[in-house]
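Lab notebook, bench 4. Still working through the backlog of constructs that have no structural model yet. Next entry is a single chain of 353 residues. Request: give me the structure tokens for it.
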Amino acid sequence: MINIIGWGARLGALFNENKGSPWGSGSGGGSGDGDGPRNPWGQPPRRRRPSGANPLDELLRRGRDRFGTGFPPADGRPWWLYLAALVIAAIIFFTSTHLVAPSERGVITRFGKYAGMLEPGLGLTFPWPIDSVRKVNVGEIRQEQMGSSDPNANDFVLTGDQNLVDVAYQVNWRVRDPQLYLFQLAEPEQTIHEVAQYAMRAVMARVSLNDAIGSGRAEIEQNVREAMQQVLDRYRSGIEIDNVALKQSDPPQAVNDAFKAVSAAQQQAQSAINNAKSYAYQVTANAQGQATAFDKVYAQYKLAPEVTRRRMYYDTMEEVLSHVDKTVIEAPGVTPYLPLPEVRARPRQESAQ
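Model written out:
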């Protein structure tokens, strides 16, 4: 290529040596100062650039001439070198210092490979593009909605007694290990969604319809959470399932009214059973109390039978006579009839007067 350019320059110089011809450049490079006719196809003379001049310096010089002499070169160096150094220093500073929040962890990758973990606080790494840091929030509880609360949606699950149940539930989870969470699963949310569906179907296949729509819902939630955690641990996902909440567990819409009636009857029966158990407990407790009191009286009777017998007689007579208006006492030297209510009322009247 250099040889071709050199031969082209030599041919151009050879043709330009024809002075005085109408196609020649004439003396003075076609400026019109010579004796020969001026070449109509000639080009005006160009101002030659000094040898060793930098095109960028020439552009900056023209800019200073036009817009002023701002940013003068220092020590013979152009100002853009200092600007570039400042930009590079800023990039190094902002890509090598990282502020990690208390609920976050910083995962360091060096040339794309895991290189360490940044704890909460201010951390230092190599600048970009050597190191890069991805912050993962390990304190945030994330939610995954499963199923549908729309009655027209057919999100059915088969129970152990071959019945269909329309379920809607929510999975609450968080990141336990940021390294595994970032590098083990390509799509963590999609994986959680599929694992939740598997766990719910597996647990529902072992329970009856009455448990699924009634009192067994708490146990189902616990079993689904444990099944999901086991699968995710085998995947080494770095995810922890916080809890699973059943929002809806109903039969299909076509038979929902009948199942609601059955459920209401079961609740009434359970309420009646609870009331009967409560009454039985009260009667049993009262009988046990009376038996304990009798045992105490019998122990005192064994110590002094005559005194205890007389004491029981007096207590019994006091309880019986307190409910009658007239009392007959047969004893020697005592009036056989005593109008006790009148005798009691007479002192009251006298005191009132």
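Notes after review: Residues 1-36 have pLDDT under 50 and may be disordered. The two ends are 149 Å apart (CA to CA). Flag for follow-up if needed.
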